[in-house]
Structure formats: C-alpha cells, structure tokens
Amino acid sequence: MAPWLSLEKELGGWNLVDSHGLHQIVEKMDRPRERYPSVQLFVGGKTKAEALRALYPHNSYGRSSRFGLARVHLSELPGPDPIVLIESSLQSHSEVRAPRATVLRQQPVCRSHDCSHDEVRNLLYQQVLLPMAHTVCLFLNDLSSTDDIEVIQKLLVAWQVPSNGIDKCRTPQPHVIVVLTKGPERQVSGESIARRLSSATVPHVAAAISVVDLRDRGELSRASRFQPLKHAVTRQQEAARTIRAEARLLFSATHLDALARQSLKHAARRPTTPLDYIQVSRPSQTKEVCAAQHLHSFLKLADSIRLERQYVARCVASAMLMNAYPPGMHGKPTGHPRSRAQQQIRYIEALTRNRIRSYQHVSHIVRE
Length: 368
What we know:
Elements lengths: L1 E9 L2 E6 L2 H8 L9 E6 L2 H10 L12 E7 L8 E11 L11 E4 L8 H16 L2 E5 H4 L5 H10 L16 E6 L9 H12 L6 E6 L8 H4 L1 H20 L6 H17 L7 H5 L9 H14 L4 H16 L12 H21 L4 H6 L1
C-alpha cells in the first residue's frame, strides 16, 4: 500500500499533494505500456477496510492507510489485466503527513484561500478520482452515521463536473456501487435506492448505479459476508471496461499514470472545468487544426499529379486510421492486431473512395 493524494492547508490556500504512490506502482509493473489496468475506487472507513481484506486478502492494509485522502495498491490476485485499487475517505488526515522526501508534486489550488476542506476534497474526487475509476464502491454505514441515503446522493451531486460543452464520451464516468451493511430500514429496498440515486446522478456523475445489500449478512465470515460485493464489482468492472474500450478510453498503465498527473494539475489550475482526456492525451492536435483544409490541400496535390482515386482513397484511409489510433493509446484491440487493422483500413477505404468519387468541395467529405 502506498500513500498517494492528500490535501494541505497553507496561508495562501490549499495544495493538492502527490506522494508518488501511483507512479511507484506503475514503475513496478511488467510492461506497463502494454497493460491496461482496471481501476477500483473504495470510499469509506472501517467497513471499507473489511471489504478490501475480503476481496483482496493478499494485499496489506496497515498504518499508512491513515495518511492522506487516497492510498493506492496493486492487486496481488492473478488475472489477465492488473487491478489498481484506490482506497479513500472523506477526511484527509492532514496531521499525518508523508515524509517530505516522498512528495513529488504540490499543486496550489487557485483561489482556494476561502475554500473549506470539503470543497477541496470534492474537487479532488470530481476531477481526479472519479474519472480515473472504472468502479466506485461507496459504503453507506461509513459515510453516514444515520445511514441516510441522501448523504450518498449529495456526495455524488457534489462530485459532478460542469460539462462546459465537452462531449461526455471524452470524460470517463464510473460505475457506482452503493454498499448497505446496517441501514436504512429493511422496508427500504436496494432497488428503490438504486432508482432514486440513478434518477439524480446518471448520466451526469456515473454511467450506472447499483446497490449491494449486505444487511442480513453480518453474522457470516468476512469472505462470505462480502461475496455478493465481489461478484458485483467483477460485473460492473467488465461492463465499464467494455464501454471504455468502445469509446477508446481504456488506457495503458503508463498513460493512466500520466493522465493522473495531468488531472491533478488541471484540478488545481482550472477547478471549474472538466478535463478532456482525449485532448490532453494528444497535445499536438489543437482545436485550431482544420481537417477540411488539409484534405483540400492533399486532394488538390493528388489531382495536380494525376494520382488514381483508388490510391488516394487508401492514403486517406490509412491517415484517418493512424490518427484515430495512436500506438498503445486508447484501447486494446480484440483479435490479431494486424488482421484487425486491415479490416478497419478496408472499411474506411471503401467509405473514403465513395466520398472522393463525388467530391466537389472537401467540406462535403468532412460533413459526411
């Protein structure tokens, strides 16, 4: 277990502190550029710790869990893809600080001198932790002394980032699992809780919300008690990975580490705007670049030297494919990579050839 993120208050405002935890885990991975980890976020206290010991018994959860707002682990369980575990709480234990030698980065949050701890904490969740996580487990009994589900709803609403015109598919959203262990009353079903939370937060904060009801399992052993949660996390993780792979938002471990650093920097400098994961992953491609202009220039050049339209279509198809899939960036291809790429080239080539045949102005090609 490694300390990772914490909050520190100074006279001028708040700092977001990165203590190198995620970077250390990625550095220890075998071939991190080729591994596409799942990220699971667990938010709570004592019950959260018990659940982690049941789900991942080979990991160590010791005194360092008292440090900061978020700690990070790498699952020791065997599997095809690594699992990065993030455990966090609502309180940042600022009185227990990491050794200064372990602090990699300190990001001062702009205009934060009047902000409360909860406001800065919510900023860290909405800009860094939730977008990174494939699944988020919220333990109601740890987060509310009265087992009031409204506490969860208020938290999720507070963790929502204004869209500001950014496409939702470019800012990942997690699958949220609410875990019930003691309350609310038995007559309040898990299904009704899931419906209530979903109506308030999906798709603004979460891609989906489900409830795992463990209220009648308190007398069982730890492993048996949390077995339904284990199954739910596995199901939601696979669903989240599928959605992200289709949206090209399933990142390698190396890119995940880089995006976490960018998210932290963005949260401190522009706390009211969401981070566009695709744009920040490809900084050389600015919004000012107009594809229509480049296509127009290329087609004029092709016409001037009398290139065959079939050859031109192949060139455009290859360029579109390579531009959409930077090496090792957004997704893990299914099947053999070469055959997959050839299929995509043939498909785009056919589309491109049809557009070029009817070409009058390049803007028509771009629109279609």
